[in-house]
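Re: duplicated header lines in exported structure tokens

Our pipeline writes sequence and tokens for each protein into one text file. With two proteins the header for the second block appears twice in some exports. Here is an export where it did not happen, for reference. First protein block:
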Amino acid sequence: MFDKIVIIIYFALMLGAGYVGSRRNRNSDDFTVAGRRLGPFMYTSAMSTVVLGGAATVGGVSLGYQHGISGMALVLMLSLGIAMIGVLFAGTVHRNGVRTVPEALERTFGRTSGLLGSVIVIFYTLFVGVAQIIAIGTVLTVVFDMPRALAAAVGWAVITLYSVAGGMWSITMTDVIQFLIKTVGIFALLLPMAIAEADGLGSLQEKLPATYFDPVGIGVSTIAAYFLLFFFGFLIDQGNWQRLATARSERVARWGALVSGVYCALYGLAGALIGTAAKALLPTLSTADDAYASVASLVLPAGVFGVVIAAALAASMSTASGLLIGSSTVLTGDVLRPKYGERMNSLRANRIALLAVCVAALAIALAMDSVVGAVTVATDLLAAGLFIPITFGLLWRRSTAFAAVASIVAGSVVCIVFMILDGLYANEPVMFGMLASLVAFAVASLVRRKEHSAPERTLKDVPAVPS
């Protein structure tokens, strides 16, 4: 009972932080990018929490349960991606006042590429947000012994209330709380206590197969697939780009991303070790996604267990809220605003769009049951369709509008075809999708550059526009 009270208090804290954040909203810039005023601690905390969601926490422990320490590969690729954003894109994106990935495409290549990018980004942010809602349901089911659909709906309701009320200010304030809870819950409580319950690392090595302690035990091909999916995908992740825009300076944007990458890598290692200990303690779990909550229930006393479960909820809720507001920002700013004008830039329009996106996310979540599966589908399409045109648009002056459209279409179509042929979890969709995107971009740029491009430029040459 005490653990349930802790979770309820946590939800109340989130709603309270959402209310406080809502009082800071005066315009669309406040709602979507927190007024571009975040300092180092708030920015780094928020950047970390948007990365470390249900796939990194519940999913990371699940992979550790199945594969051992190499299960950290997924989170490691996320951490490398977020760090590289600081190196490659933070300066250009922050200086140009860009809020969304499709905005960068449209300002570099024109309206058609921006619209195509918007479709992919909305799909991506929705499905990764869906993965977080699924993860919330998985965790709450263990604590409250309720149907998974109802559990997911409860977590979704809390996210929707504080996000719609205060936008990015509320999300950032809840992120800071969630960052602290995750840090304490994972590093100070669950990791040491799970390993101690399993009689230490030495005992784990005796009880489990050697592959559990092989850094590439999950498989080189799987690690390569995670690299293609999550490293490249996170470089152009809408949630991350929108977070770049919240920093108060280019320096904060760059160094905060690098620090966040280091933190996330350590978090991934901790999750894999927790999953490894769970395998030794609970070897016959029917569902690997239950490993996080199940091992926490086994090794932690009342009250402490509630804090650790709150850490899992914090991970999923922070990522979900960041991605869902990313989806609604693309919807209002890149899809509706060019057609309906500045009324789409109002607080009211932003709130309505975010509410609509949240409702769609819940409906999709109730129809799916795999955390990693939802993320994989979304990230496949994002990396295959947008990585090449975004990167070349930022860096290569011979890029053309025609090439961007050809690249997006070719990469997306090939990715979808290979998903159908080889399955959602195969490596081929993203590998061949990115290859097709690259070939289409290069050929179209070189062959039809003079006919279809504006004067040669990259995003660095495009002046910032008012938000």
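Second protein block, exported in the same file:
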Amino acid sequence: MIELYESQRAMRNMRKAAMQRGVIAILDVGSSKIACFVLRFDGTERMHDQDGVGSLAGQSGFQVIGVATTRSRGVRFGEISAMQETERAIRTAVQAAQKMADKRVDHVIACFSGADPRSYGLSGKVDLQGTTVSEQDIARVLSACDVPDLGHDREVLHAQPVNFALDHRSGLGDPRGQIGQELATDMHMLTVDGMAVQNLAQCVKRCDLELAGIASSAYASGISALVEDEQELGAACIDMGGGVTSVSIFMKKHMIYADAVKMGGDHITGDISMGLQVPMATAERIKTFHGGVVATGMDDREMIEIGGDTGDWEHDRRTVTRAELIGIMRPRVEEILEEVRARLDAAGFEYLPSQQIVLTGGGSQTPGLDGLASKILGQQVRLGRPLRVHGLPQAATVPSFASTVGLCLFAAHPQDEWWDFEIPVERLPGRTFGRAVRWFKENW
């Protein structure tokens, strides 16, 4: 825990240094594509003098000057499975983005979707040392949160205060400077499998780049696909990627829950490949051009030429109806949505005042998906596109770039996290061994 707290602090300092120099790269390591954006900062960005703790408002201060994507290699279920292949793919994307931007970048902020995320809600309470709330008081109340045993090899990816209460006045965004006696906080902590994070950091290092930040793609997608009212009143963002479907819930402009389902668009492609006995590339093409989840009377008559290059004329000239294709795709899509429904139920989503659900990611572009999702999830469902940011090309405004665009907003306006405050070392959790040693010294 200590190492992670220190490394996250170091990454924040590195990000500030990179932004002062003017350029930073954004890297979205997904199961189907690796995207790289190069951002240029114009110096108008205000570091931490924003309104409120972690205000997500405002997109000024940066411009996208380089964009590149490449097919992902060596990534399964959002985690790196073949280091060298992923390294090659990252190098390809970063070099192409640098070429377009005509700038060299040394620092990247990365996001990924897998690694078995788990959410925890923590709370802490302290008496104020003075009459007004200071930065030090916020550090003390965050360190007073009782952190559970996270399990072996788990790392904290996000630790964000989502609410403050000062003498029974709850719902405060930023209590600094206010008068009171007792300060309490609620904090959301997201942990992931430590090995997946270390592999990603190692892969970035092998590409001769410095990691200046790391985020969950569920969080990044929510920032870019949910409009401000949805973030405020309560909404879920479902990012349907290639290998993983990420789920995040936002309330009062803070992420309060995140999870992931280890299924995505690649599994649908695999089903088509097996059902029609065609290669994966052909199955992907058929899914993209002709796919859907709701069959109509017309679909029995719409013939799709499968095509192929096996040399067997009869085999290569096969056709299937669109209804047959939908019959292969729909069960898998239903299975993914049922899993998402189970995650939302576990999070208590039905108790939120607003229950808007936003579908984004490449898989959300399947025709008819929003109708099917509203039947299974039983809520208001809409398709979400990433917010417009300055300099973004038209090709990068599609739902499959939601997490990449969200990461740009995260880079420019990061929400305050646990490691942005000087927490006293002896108050940090995870120091049970240190406590034991000190107890021995004092008592023997």
